[in-house]
Amino acid sequence: MVSLTDFQRIGVGLVGFGLFFILFGMLLYFDSVLLAFGNILFLSGLVFIIGFRRTFTFFFQRPKLKGTSFFLGGVLIVLMRWPLLGMLLEAYGFITLFRSFFPVAFGFLGSLANIPMLSKLLQRVGDSSSMV
Questions:
Q1: Does the pLDDT of residue 29 top 70, yes or no?
Q2: pTM score of the predicted model
């Protein structure tokens, strides 16, 4: 079991509440206030979990600048009360930022799943590690 510091526990809570508010804002027909609040909580929770310097270096690496600009631009657009366009930009930025992490996550989910068909499907998706 991984031990978490108090700041990291607070960060996990902030990220959880941020994801809840983002989901709830999407369920309520893209309510811009809930989406903006969820974005702020998510980003601040990320800072609490991995630290300010590591968050900054993750988002502003040279190969990830395109994804960062779309993600943070989407957050800014949501804050300006254009929620649908902002969430589309955020989704594209999120996929671009975390593209290399998806095969690892799908492979991990496939190893945990005891359902035979789901396990094979998740392993097949996890094995496709093309960077295209």
A1: yes
A2: 0.78
